[in-house]
Design brief:
The chain has 13 helices and 17 strands. With about 475 residues, it is α/β, with parallel strands linked by helices.
Length: about 475
């Protein structure tokens, strides 16, 4: 597959072809280093599912066991631990920053002995299949730049999302479904999610994510109006294509190709989407595996089940968004709800992929935009506390193809405030994801406004210790 190096490439070549330097410039354009074939090397992964927990899950209550916080519960966060690092305006003006130990018990699980909270009994049963990264860190301390950073590699809106980069670089595994599908848990509230988080940015529009929704019409504006038969729709598209081809011949605008591709995909999706979104044939066993919520369309559990169906039909990148992890106060009650909604289904997805032979070439990622503080935001009591945003260290887990199961990477200090060893930055996670897909993250670039952009911007390295043999 050969890639254009500029979104206006077709227009520019049309201009150059009419100029005195047209032939020479065209010859030089063929030498552009970004004009490469992908993948760059044999991939370990063909498909990815990213379970994004929007709001920032509290790692001290889920995965990063810190008994010292319980011993020193209520004591002031030592200045030697904080090191003058910035705080948000929500807790930065508190008179005190009292350390808050988790009220939830932790136990070591599986043969690997990973510490997991009792809040996550289903995840605890599959720890030997998981790789925990306890040393994730980011520069973003607020939600919008934080989630934008994880989705696009930049805190500033407008860059292409991960799924769009993969669609652009690797293409489709199933021409009848989108390369990139987004599922958002319905009726959750919490921090807002925007379509730009799965947008194509400056890449051609056909690479943007397609959101599936619960209900009669999983994809908006896909169903034909009443009275329009499928042969009629086909004739309309053929006529539209003729007009588009004539327009492209005169204007040389590459965006016309995207419009034609999107129209054809929408036509094919009119039959493929209803089939994949119909969960009625899953049977009791499938629903029981994911939990009772799986029978209710739009829940996290139902979306996990739908995600598996999309993956097995060749969708390359599926992203689930689950809101509600932003627990500045009343954390014990709120986090119980979040875990009840997500724990069983997340673990079930890993097990379901494995039993169907799909985990051998599928990567599963779980995590949010940052972690939470080791001190309480607001009043600390024996049964209640809140936690503010904490970008300095937090936990992700990964499972599946190319990943070292039963392994924990990185450590945080005894207070759970700073990283002690093996830090993993957002760009490092992205570089590792691309590596598993057979992509050198420094070579997948797109030229826009005179600069070559990439998902990992100007940094990032592959986290090799987490890779399986």
């Amino acid at each position: 597959m050969t890639f254009p190096f500029d979104p206006m490439d077709g227009t520019r070549r049309h201009f150059l072809a009419r100029s005195a330097f047209g032939l020479g410039a065209a010859a030089l354009a063929r030498l552009d280093p970004d004009d490469v074939q992908l993948p760059h090397f044999p991939p370990r992964v063909r498909r990815v599912i990213y379970l994004f927990q929007s709001g920032g899950p509290a790692q001290h209550d889920l995965f990063d066991y810190k008994p010292l916080l319980n011993e020193k519960n209520g004591e002031e966060l030592p200045a030697s631990v904080r090191r003058g690092q910035r705080l948000t305006g929500m807790s930065g003006n508190q008179a005190t920053l009292p350390l808050a130990g988790s009220i939830f018990p932790f136990h070591q699980r599986g043969e690997c002995g990973a510490w997991v909270s009792d809040l996550l009994p289903h995840t605890a049963r599959i720890v030997d299949k998981l790789c925990f990264i306890r040393s994730m860190h980011t520069e973003a301390i607020n939600h919008d730049p934080g989630i934008t950073f994880f989705q696009t590699g930049s805190q500033i809106a407008g860059r292409p999302s991960i799924g769009s980069w993969l669609s652009y670089g690797l293409g489709s595994l199933n021409k009848d479904l989108p390369d990139f599908v987004v599922l958002v848990t319905k009726n959750k509230g919490g921090q807002p999610l925007y379509a730009r988080l799965w947008g194509a940015g400056f890449l051609p529009a056909r690479h943007q994510g397609v959101q599936f929704r619960a209900g009669k019409d999983p994809v908006l504006f896909l169903t034909d109006p009443g009275g329009i038969e499928r042969p009629t729709r086909r004739r309309m598209l053929d006529a539209l294509r003729t007009l588009h081809l004539d327009q492209r011949a005169h204007e040389r605008d590459p965006a016309i190709d995207s419009r034609m591709a999107q129209a054809e995909l929408a036509y094919r999706m009119q039959t493929s989407v209803p089939e994949v979104a119909d969960l009625s044939g899953e049977g009791d066993e499938g629903f029981d595996l994911y939990g009772k919520d799986a029978r209710t369309p739009g829940t996290y559990a139902a979306n996990c089940l739908l995600a598996r169906r999309l993956l097995e039909r060749g969708v390359r990148f599926v992203q689930l968004f689950h809101q509600g992890w932003d627990q500045h106060g009343n954390l014990p009650k709120a986090i119980r709800t979040q875990c009840r909604e997500t724990d069983q289904a997340s673990a079930a997805l890993v097990l379901d992929l494995e039993r169907r032979g799909l985990l051998d070439d599928t990567l599963v990622i779980w995590g949010g935009e940052f972690g939470r503080t080791n001190y309480s935001q607001g009043k600390l009591t024996k049964t209640n506390y809140g936690r503010d945003h904490h970008p300095r260290c937090f936990t992700f887990w990964l499972a599946g193809a190319g990943i070292r199961g039963g392994y924990t990477h990185g450590t945080t200090d005894p207070y759970g405030y700073n990283i002690e060893s093996d830090p993993v930055h957002v760009h490092d996670l992205h570089a590792t994801l691309l590596h598993l897909l057979g992509i050198d993250h420094e070579r997948l670039t797109y030229r826009f406004q005179g600069r070559r952009y990439r998902l990992t911007d100007v940094r990032g390295h592959v986290v090799r210790p987490i890779l399986g043999s």
